[in-house]
Design brief:
176 residues; alpha/beta; Protocatechuate 3,4-Dioxygenase, subunit A; 4-stranded mixed sheet; 2 helices; 8 strands
Length: 176
């Protein structure tokens, strides 16, 4: 089964045009892993636009209809703001984020899935266990972000080893 999971994940990564080895080291405490994501996390100057958050593989364990909740465990807190790429302004109350990750035992289950809505400032806060490594995968949390008038974003957050919190701003591209 692990070999099949590997093939499915690899095909998903290649279909998105990403390199399977794209995970890069981040500054301690950043919890953000790619230069594009680091750029998206910065505060724009007036009139500036934000580059959309980089997509990542959906993976084989996505399941729609996760319960609405902001916590599926303890030990790691992920927070950030959902923004519009066109204006860098927060997408307030309109966006919802689906999260899924492996539990401490390395398996995906319904206890480690959640949906939450951003607040009036576009902010979110999600708490979980620190995602474990499994098979060939580094620790990661899957996210699927949707908001009316924007393209759906599927991405992953790769927490830095030993961290208990991370910031991951999510920048959505307008729908065409």
């Amino acid at each position: 089964m692990e070999y099949l999971t590997f093939l499915l994940l690899l095909l998903g990564v290649l279909a998105l045009g990403l390199s399977p080895g794209r995970v890069e080291a981040a500054p301690a405490g950043a919890g953000i892993q790619s230069p594009l994501m680091l750029a998206a996390a910065g505060q724009p100057k007036s009139g500036e636009t934000c580059p959309p958050t980089e997509s990542d593989a959906l993976g084989p364990f996505y399941k729609p209809g996760a319960p609405e909740r902001a916590s599926v465990g303890r030990g790691y807190v992920l927070s950030g703001v959902v923004k519009s790429a066109g204006s860098c302004t927060p997408i307030a109350r309109e966006a919802h984020i689906e999260f899924w990750l492996a539990g401490p035992d390395g398996n995906y289950d319904d206890d480690h899935r959640a949906t939450l809505f951003v607040d009036e400032t576009g902010a979110y806060r999600f708490e979980s266990n620190f995602p474990p490594k499994y098979s060939f995968r580094p620790p990661h949390i899957h996210l699927r972000v949707t908001a009316k008038g924007y393209r759906t974003l599927v991405t992953q957050h790769y927490p830095a080893a030993g961290q208990t919190q991370g910031t991951f701003d999510l920048v959505l591209a307008p729908a065409r």
